[in-house]
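Async update (no meeting this week)

Hi team, since we skipped the sync, here's where things stand on the single-chain job. The sequence we agreed to prioritize is pasted below, unchanged from the tracker. I ran it this morning and attached the output directly underneath so nobody has to dig for it. Comments welcome in thread, and please keep replies under the output.
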Amino acid sequence: MLSTILPGDGDVRKAREVDRVQTFRRRTSPTGNNEPINAGFDVIGHPAPMQNLRLRASAVGRSRARWLATRFGTELRIARVTAGLSQVQTARLAGVGQTVVSRAECGDPRVSLDVRCRLAAAAGHELGWRLYPVATVRLRDSGQLALAHAIVTAAAKAWAAELEVPIGPGDRRAADIVLRRSDQFIHIEVERVLVDLQAQLRAGQLERQELAQRHELPVRLVLAVADTRGNRDRVAAVKELLAHVLPMSSREIWAVIRTGASLRGDGILFVRVRGARHGAARIRGRYPPTPRADRPDHAPRQERPTR
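Output:
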């Protein structure tokens, strides 16, 4: 063992603590790659499948926070012991009390982000955070329902249109729109704003790949975005690059959707909508405004009889 070749009682105790921490990581990792987990969660802290039950975002977020706090505590303890620091010394370097270090190493989720960064720096490390797409926000929740409605209502009868199609069993992602024929799928991802075109395209390509493997049919990918000046400017800025990845124009895609013909490649579809009443946008040129008196929630008042 490492502890038998290190001189001094203090060094022996530190080496033994390192051995205990590493043993803990191996025992708590089902894959043997030092990944601690909690009951009911997979190796990356995502909720385990529960009979396809869609968990609430608040519950998923709280569970993920507890898992991350536990993982941070384990890694902080390993970093501290490896650096030869006690909890008191780490607390002094980070400008906190020893009890704060103990709480962080025990996985207390109430330790603030500022304190965690200071503790990591005291142990010679840097804490980093990133966001990873693991689920799909519903069209209604994201405000994209109007764009989806415009596409579905324009689709020819040859297409079987479906909204929010699950990517696969146990997968919390969903394709926003699927236009299905016996020989082809069109997978449409609806985006209101092109914030990070590369990341949005990559997410759609991964979902398209899963759908193609599941259904064993060719699947075309279409990014449907609101027809705004900002979105058109962002696409125009990388037009030459997109010509190889998304060769089909918006005009060609609209023609395929309306006629039921085959789509020869991927592309970007610009969808023009305007105005919203009662939570649903009105599609330009398709639905004439409804007179206020014809709506039940704006019925005209009846005059009271005069006495």
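Quick observations from my side:
Residues 1-8, 27-54, 276-300 have pLDDT under 50 and may be disordered.
The CA atoms of residues 276 and 282 lie 6 Å apart.
Reply here if anything looks off.
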